Amino acid sequence: MDKNRVEGTKHEIKGAMKEGVGKVTGNPAKEAAGAIEKNAGKVQKEVGKEHDRQRDADKHH
Question: Residue 18, Cβ neighbours under 10 Å: how many?
Fold first, then answer.
């Protein structure tokens, strides 16, 4: 498993938590920062998935 998948998942979870705290506390800056980190984590996770797909394809050729 590519490390980007693991790191992306961590950022996605951390961002979702920040976003939730921002909503509960009425802190739009924290909510926005959480949403950004969550989305960046999703992108990083997809990059990791693509690396895994490429590695698997290389093994089969």
Answer: 20
33-47 per-position pLDDT tens digit:
999 999 999 999 999
Contacts of 3 by beta carbon, 8 Å cutoff, 6+ apart: 48
Q: Token digits for 48? A: 């990791």
Whole-prediction pTM: 0.86
- Please, what's the largest Cα pairwise distance for the chain? 54
The Cα angle at residue 46 between residues 34 and 50, in degrees rounded to 5: 160
CA distances from 37 to 2, 34, 47, 48, 53 (A): 19, 5, 15, 16, 24
**Paired tokens of 35:** 């949403």
